[in-house]
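User: Structure please.
Assistant: Input sequence and predicted structure:
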Amino acid sequence: MVKNFKVIHGPNLNLLGKREVGIYGGESMEEINSEVAEEAESLNVIVEFYQSNYEGELVTFIQMCRDKVDGILFNAGAYTHYSIALRDAISAVQVPTLEAHISNVYQRESFRHTSVIAPVCVGQICGFGSHSYILGLRGLIETKLPSRSIYIMDTKKMTSKKKKYMVISGPNLNLLGTRKTSIYGEYSLEDIHNELHLHASGFNVLVECEQFNNEGKIIDCLQKAPGEFNGLIINAGALAHYSYALRSAIGATLLPCIEVFISNVYAREEFRHRSVIAPVCVGVISGLGKKGYLLALEALINLTGV
């Protein structure tokens, strides 16, 4: 049976393309929907779209999704930050829901740094422009990601020198597969690295993967990255929540950096809800397990080109 997904846009997203294009980009909501529909067709799934400026209508629509859809991709707009009614609706229908944002909300006003719906979503993707929707759809689909992506790969644009990306995992991530498997999964960090190398080969790019328990070693690694790498993926583990030294090091590289969390940190202890490095990253992907690393790689390729 073909899987069915809903893409829901919240208030003011019908003004995309006209509204603060420096933040939200020049594409209209209809153009984004068309791109997502094309991607859905390539992945052999059905996707339907809905937009409303009214909180109650969004609540009702989410309720109607119960037992009828396989997943919801939801950009709740400003309601993200205060609508307990939407949070309750998502929780009640028990449909896997992924929160998406066009901008990196952690680079904006402080009130946007809190999402009341994130704890009842499977995860969050933000900061990749309209591409956040494409990544979100792929994140919801429980299938192996294809090694090549029709919306990125163009062999005419390939250069003789391959792009190279650094992937850094922080403290305790070397224990993946043995540490709290109900939260982090049963796969090891080596499994993630192997899949990253395989995925990278499909795009004709290179990845170099490192893991450090020591904050200083991560900083040393970041300081050597400019000129050698075209972008960074970092799962800083616990350091994400307090290491301003790491934040400064990431900012100093002047390289696009994507923050990844394996678990949905917004559904866990309160201290994990805040990342001090998110404001210096281009975007954040959380809650999608090892697939988050693969989607981050695709996002970097989309940002930097191949």
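The chain has ten helices and ten strands.
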